[in-house]
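Note to self: keep these together.
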Amino acid sequence: MWSPGPQDNSSSSESEDAGEDGGQSAKSFLEVKVLKDGERIDQYYKVLDLIGEGRSGKVHEVVDVNKPDEKLAIKIQPKFDELGGNSPERELARLYKEMLICNRILPPHENVVQMKDFVVGKDKVYIVQELCVKKIDLFSFFGGAHETSARRVFKQLVSAVHLFHQYGVVHNDLQPHNVLFADTQFSTCRIIDFGLSIYKPAWAKKVHSNFKPYDWFKAEDLEGATDMAASSRYDIRALGKFLHAMMAGKHIPIIYSDMSFTMHNPDHYKPRKQLFCTAAFDLLFTIGPPPFGPELDDELPTIEEIRKHPWLVQGHLSRQHKIFEEEFTQLPEDFTVLEVLLKDKSTRPLRVIRDDLSNHYIITGELHRTNSTIGVMEGVDAKTKSFKKALRLLSKVDVTLMSAREARLEALRIYNELVITLRILPSYRNIVHISEVLLTEDYAMVVRELCGTQTLMEFFPVAKNHSARNIFKQLADAVQFLHRYGVVLVDLKPHHVAFMDAGFFSCKIIDMSSAVYNWELAECTHDFFQPGRFITPEVTKMLGPGNPEDDVRALGRILHAMMSGAWESNTGTRTLAPARPGFHKDALNLLSLIGPPPLGPELLQKTLSINEFIYVLKDEIDSTSDDDGVSKARIMSGLREQSILRHNKVSRETRACE
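Structure:
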């Protein structure tokens, strides 16, 4: 084993932490292996498939012969430039710099491909790295990009580039094929290939693990013509091109210094105004290629300034609160303004009524009590006297009982609930369907499908292994669906879930009163939903971003109630037994992963994500035989194998939504 440069026995902790910008925990440096005479790379790595090839070499999918279950990617580069562009000395210096940038200069980052091994042979250099999804890169992403997904991916790219520049590195080759994805849902991107990167110590604001550049480089290695002419604006230009392609929905196959091709086809590469808010266009005009952005590199902002742009920091906040400032001011006093605030061609009908509610619906009984003053009622159409519906009254508060500020916040909470149920979410089998909303000055009447009178509270005492599994899977699938559209329930309770039948075969979530929208969580949009048009700063400040872990923990408490036979309302120590006789041991395994403490993870411990435990639920616990038990260790092993494909069982609806 041999490491280039001085021997360094210091700790691998960073002198300046990168965690604030997406950095991961620092780890020990990789040592460079040197193949001895007679040794071959296939003694360490077995080639499975060719992934791609370029000017500097080929990339293969491989497995470590000592760990055949772990698939990796290996980049094979000749020591000498086969095309003759570099002298042998310069090519070796380039390879040496690439290895140092990946292994010593930059700390780990979740949006930069992780290096696993470096091997030097007689004629070739082998760089082993984590395997991303094959044949899925930014080229694949552009066509399905919309406001939510584009912001998520672009924010990751900006985070990674910010890290590069903080440590004095310019990637210098940011192209669509050098940005891969860790999953098929385009949730997490990875920047690869530092073969053309530039390192300028004078630019570095941070140093990783006390790295001393002139212990590793000669001065002339860092002061060549290419290095001296390099600029961090190269990466900014590349980001601007990426943003243009995301907003246009396609790669722009032209040289940006000559925009004549684009100008002859203006509609073909025009950013899609129907999908992107004004904040996104403002960023495009700031960093995009001409004619959208500045022509001179000196006019481009720094990466620090880009990170603070409203589209990335507060891109989900709306300018609608300024456009409809008067309506938002009137909202606590007059709910009919909701028709204006929520008006959209895709929204389910909102109808302002000036007469008595009894002219439209006749109340026939009460169904469920909620946290509001009035519960959910049963009613029928006043004209047809048929088609029973559930009617939920959302009324404005009495200003004599609350302060003006409290009244405004309650009105905004109702507005937020209607945005989520009418505009953000499409229909789903386990979420109650809304038919229409009637508006008066004093209330909004939500008319929805009629469910039964029984909730989870009635189900818990009679739940058995098979019925509990069936209902719990329905709830878990519904929560996963909500998270994919960026909705977090926050406060899921048993009375928020009603059954469609007396036999407890099918359930629906009926209450979204505490739900919030988290744009960073969203993977899909419904009917081109633009958060910037509906989500206001005041609503975001009032409700917070929404932690998806809250929903997972709520499901854990519901699972415990199904297994123990009763609901424990407090969040402290459980007093009931974890399970009654007859429950499969795999249910206990799942309870240990998501259940309330002390049965599951403590409150300060991170629990599974919804996608991770859906994998457990569907692939491990859904067994037809009680003899086919699986251990917690096997469950966790399966989760680790699925980690790079978080949503491996969910089809891509991003493009279907468009």
